[in-house]
Amino acid sequence: MKKETACLQVQGLEKHFGVGDQRQQVLQDISLEVHQGEILALLGASGCGKTTLLNILAGFVSPDAGSVYVQGRLSTVPGPHKAVVFQEDALFPWLSVMENVEFGLKFQGRTRKEQRDTALKMLGLVGLEDKQAMLPAQLSGGMRQRVALARVLALSPMLMLMDEPFAALDALTREEMHGLLLSLHAEFSQTIIFVTHDVIEAVTLADRVLVMGGRKVLSTVDISALRPRKPDTDQFMEDLRILRAALKQAYTG
Ligand SMILES: Nc1ncnc2c1ncn2[C@@H]1O[C@H](COP(=O)(O)OP(=O)(O)OP(=O)(O)O)[C@@H](O)[C@H]1O
């Protein structure tokens, strides 16, 4: 079997917030390894530190102790190799769809033609070529999240960090976005780490789920259902059952 390369290695992360009596430990001794092309879900009760962990991986928040390595190199600040997709799309409202996708490419020093060609290709992949001249406010929530995906993918990041990326969408649009994300992943094989509260979303998308609770990673569940995954198959139901049991354990301690 081919040895998988680690895209991300995390060693001994610790994080506190607040001072004095208000000081609170949010993450304790978090270590993990994510392989190139792997899709990893972070699941756990509200307030257990998922977003804080994602923000540390992104370089938005500094840990009190521990290290993050991306492809073997210490990674402490944000950069184009690790892109972030938020729950709310965070597009620039005054720029057109096309300009939003081109935006990051300018800072990569790409020529005008390269910016336009790459943005057009990405908008085509997310099915929004015909909306390129529109402003974000003229799009639905699902469309805006597609633009956000196109904008991130245009930068060819090796690591995509997503904080409840589809939570604000209705159930049908969320399902469509799952299909879109998986087809983009089949094309680009990025490493993806996403936060979710939705066990079905975790089983649909992830290769592996980290169940967090009490500041720590409490358990890891490998999702074994074959892709493309169908919710009505025995293996999907079994993965769901195992994950729900691990989550229940995390809630009840
Ligand atoms: N900047 C901050 N300053 C102080 N406390 C913070 C800060 N960010 C997060 N916290 C606290 O850290 C804890 C973990 O928050 P975090 O947002 O990481 O949890 P979460 O698991 O992502 O929660 P949710 O599922 O509700 O989004 C919470 O108690 C939160 O109040």
Automatic annotation (TrEMBL):
* Xref: InterPro entries: AAA+_ATPase, ABC_SmlMolc_Importer, ABC_transporter-like_ATP-bd, ABC_transporter-like_CS, P-loop_NTPase
Q: Which UniProt keywords apply?
A: ATP-binding, Nucleotide-binding, Transport
Name the PROSITE patterns on file.
Answer: ABC_TRANSPORTER_1, ABC_TRANSPORTER_2
MF GO annotations:
ATP binding; ATP hydrolysis activity
Q: Which domain of life is it from?
A: Bacteria
Q: Which residues form the ABC transporter domain?
A: 8-239
Which protein are we looking at? ABC transporter related protein
Q: Which organism is it from?
A: Desulfonatronospira thiodismutans ASO3-1
